[in-house]
Design a protein that fits this description.
The protein is an alpha/beta fold. The chain has a single domain, classed as Ribose 5-phosphate Isomerase B, Chain: A, CATH 3.40.1400. It contains six helices and five strands; from the N terminus they run βαβαβαβαβαα. It has a five-stranded parallel beta sheet with strand order 2-1-3-5-4, with helices on both faces. Helix 1 links the parallel strand 1 and strand 2. The longest helix is centred in the middle third of the chain and has 15 residues. The mean pLDDT is 96.
């Protein structure tokens, strides 16, 4: 399993903690930035990550202050199903029912204990398929219409 991770300035510290967790879980990842707390524009990091996730059929983790901006930006890309998760349940359902391939987190709203439980569930849960496949196809069809 390959994973990409990126954050804006508000998510930088949490990104660094998550990288340590990924290493401990032996999940291969690539850090796409930002690499410090200097102010940056989060859509640029969402774009970079979304393009890499799509090119490699990988997973992604995006972090900003609330997680909302990253989620909105990432979901602009066809084939990206970015889910803003606040607990283990939303992470489980994001994978199980929505086949989410990008996890979005809010650094200013979550402590690392909660983030750790979200990560564990997100990476351990597989897509249920079945009735949910039709719904994903419907979302894909909406996304491609002009």
């Amino acid at each position: 399993m390959k994973c990409y991770i990126a954050a804006d300035h508000a998510g930088f510290a949490l990104k660094e903690e998550i990288k340590q967790w990924l290493k401990a879980q032996q999940i291969a990842f690539e850090d796409l930035g930002t690499f410090d707390t200097q102010r940056v524009d989060y859509p640029l990091y969402a774009q970079k990550l979304a393009q890499r996730v799509l090119a490699d059929s990988a997973f992604g983790i995006l972090i900003c202050g609330s997680g909302i901006g990253m989620s909105i930006a990432a979901n602009r890309f066809a084939g990206i199903r970015a889910a803003l998760c606040h607990d283990a349940y939303t992470a489980e359902v994001a994978r199980l029912h929505n086949d989410a391939n990008v996890l979005c987190l809010g650094a200013r709203v979550l402590g690392f204990g909660i983030v750790e439980s979200i990560l564990h569930v997100f990476f351990q849960t597989t897509f249920e398929g079945g009735r949910h496949e039709k719904r994903i196809a419907l979302m894909d069809a909406i996304q491609t219409k002009e």
